[in-house]
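chain and backbone:
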Amino acid sequence: MDHEYPVKVVRIDNLVHQLQQVKDNQQDELDDLNEMLKKVLESLSQEIQMKRKKLLNSLVVKTQEPCQEVLLQKISENHNMVKHADKFREFTNQFKQEIPKLRAEVGQLRAQVQDPREIVFADILLRRPKCTPDMDVTLNIPVEELLPF
């Protein structure tokens, strides 16, 4: 019996060692399997993302295509409006600079304007400057000249 006991112990120890190796191998296989599973899931996820992007791009193209010409036209119209707005700003600034000059000219012209009645009927109205007491008076009386006969 003593002789059998060490053989059984050695055998048990051997079996325990084999069991540990099998457990380690199984754990390695599980780790490898988990790693492969992660890679497969990642590749599937990437493939799904690619399909989503393609589908989304195709939907965008399908929805934008009918409106694309109108959008391009609106863009060009907006650019034209911006150009014209800049030109109008330049014109308004130029006109604002000319306003004081024009007001001065209008003031001068108003000062020069005479009453139309005085211009038309100048010989009838005979408007002359008033004679104040401190002014010199010059009489200009026409003299009749006798005609030689």
